[in-house]
């Protein structure tokens, strides 16, 4: 399955363990957000930053993550990223709002290393299986988020919200241990992530497909992170759910992302053109974000649909990145570009929803940015999904 590097299934296991840590600590915040706001006396807009800040870091840290991969090698860089995730996760709940926000920034930057380098590692080391492995590795992101969403609230009832957030550091330590072998065996050449070639950036910037892939990730991120941040609060406000039931709703939304991510690799290789699949994902998001506020009594339907759609959306974005890249050089550059610009857009989602809802008291008005983003996903998919390779 992997090319002749001697990494084999141990490498795949390490990549999947890294994926578990790239969303979990973000998803863990939402179930205990009312407790955090009550204890730290923070506004809706500030609470939204706890989800927006890591996503903004995904954008701003993307070039640095690519540089770190070139400097250290992919697996050593991923190892460093996991150790920093463990440290930031362990310390962030314990010293007030400023440490919470500062550690959240560090956490986001460390996660960015995995965001940028995982697709490059898969493209480089798994050959013709790269598309399918991308789907499986993306499912690990949803799995980590689902575990955090499902278990943080019960842990908070037992340990308190601070310990319930900090305990997720253990998962990052396990991933770091799994990376030790691949990191030690990796060649010391700095070309693990290829150096920039003359004119390559300009070609990416003039490629409509590269821009459409970037837009798809950005708009998917707007909807996913905003819903992740605010769904429990929204359902408590307008569907009259209890804290426990709102936590179940969020858990369901995250858990169903796992089969959603696995659907994409099963469907995406049925043809060379993936536009129809992308349009279905965009339309599904539009139904969900409309349904949550216009028919909140059907919250179970929207949680189920949204869970499947969000898993499909992130899997589609990263699988299209791999499929449309002509080689590993292009995959590295396109991964950095789409995450720099895409997550810059995505970071606005939780903050905008919190800002509008706090200013107007209306969840309908607060969801308008998500309706626009869902419609934009349909447009982006029509370009990103067409059969065309992005070349250096």
Spans of at least 5 consecutive residues whose pLDDT stays below 50 are 1-7, 189-194
The CATH C-level name is: Mainly Alpha
Helix vs. strand class: mainly alpha
CATH superfamily annotation: MFS general substrate transporter like domains
- The proportion of strand residues reads under 5%
Number of β-strand runs: 0
> Which percent range fits the helix content?
over 70%
Overall pLDDT confidence: 83
- What is the CATH architecture assignment? Up-down Bundle
Output the radius of gyration: 19 Å
Distance between the termini: 26 Å
Give the helices and strands as they follow along the chain. HHHHHHHHHHHHHHHHHHHH
Count up the helices: 20
- The CATH topology, please? Growth Hormone, Chain: A
* Outline: globular
Task: Spell out the key features of this protein.
392 residues; mainly alpha; Growth Hormone, Chain: A; 80% helix; globular
What features would you describe in this structure?
The chain has 392 residues and is mainly α. It has a single domain, classed as Up-down Bundle (Growth Hormone, Chain: A), CATH 1.20.1250.20. Helices cover 80% and strands 0% of the residues. It is built from 20 helices and no strands. The chain starts with 7 loop residues before the first helix and ends in an 8-residue tail after the last helix.
